[in-house]
């Protein structure tokens, strides 16, 4: 049975809760990059996110749920990483 009493609570505003990638030790290395490098890498990650979302939708339409889930996860992580580089 699902406890629905906490569904109306606001989401956490803590950055590491909203973006769990921030808790990884190697994220500090990404944040230490030069602004130009970070901007270029962010663009690549945003492209990856878009491509992965497109693939996830296509797999879902073709009833390939495991691959749709895989590509969805790729898109989510690419999005989380791109936000680290802002």
Which regions have little confidence, pLDDT < 50, spanning 5+ residues?
A: none
Q: What is the strand content? A: under 5%
Structural class: mainly alpha
Rounded to an integer in angstroms, the radius of gyration calculated over CA atoms is 16 Å
The quaternary state of the protein chains shown equals single chain
Structure notes:
Helix 3 (35-61) runs antiparallel to helix 4 (65-84). The protein is mainly alpha-helical and 86 residues long. It has a domain at 34-84. 65% of the residues lie in helices and 0% in strands.
Write the topology of this structure.
Layout: H1 15-18, H2 27-31, H3 35-61, H4 65-84
Helix pairs in contact: 3-4
Main features:
86 residues; mainly alpha
Offer a quick outline of the entry.
This protein is an all-alpha fold. Helix content is 65%, strand content 0%.
